[in-house]
Amino acid sequence: MALDQIKQFIESKEWPYRYTDVAELGSIDFEYLGVSYHVWEFMDDQYGVESNVKNIGKLEEFLGDYENDLIEIMKKWGE
Questions:
Q1: What distance in Å separates the CA atoms of residue 14 and residue 33, rounded to the nearest whole number?
Q2: Looking at CB atoms within 10 Å, which of 12, 51, 54, 68 has the fewest?
Q3: Which UniProt keywords apply (predicted)?
Q4: Residue 34 phi/psi, 5° resolution?
């Protein structure tokens, strides 16, 4: 299943979310403190995600170890 690590992290925090899997690429919409976030996995030349986790109002692409990169950003929320 795609985006397993991010999904597990969100579940551990008990944040409401919706997960969709299309052609083995994941998409997660979730809320934290009433703000909506989106993580959409894609495959071009390599796997990556587009997400607004780093900057609420702006979708950005993350490549490489994107699941861990996004989780590290979310771990800092509320600090």
A1: 12
A2: 12
A3: Kinase, Transferase
A4: 80, 5
Q: Is residue 43 part of a domain?
A: yes
* Domain-located, residue 33: yes
- The most distant pair of C-alpha atoms in the chain lies apart, rounded to whole Å, by 36
Tens-digit pLDDT profile for the chain (79 aa)? 589 999 999 999 999 999 999 888 999 999 999 999 999 999 988 999 999 999 988 999 999 999 999 999 999 998 7
- Measure the CA–CA gap between 78 and 33, rounded to whole angstroms: 10
User: In 3-state terms, what secondary structure has residue 2?
Assistant: coil
Residue 28 lies in a domain: yes
3-state secondary structure of 13: helix
Residue at 79 is within a domain: no
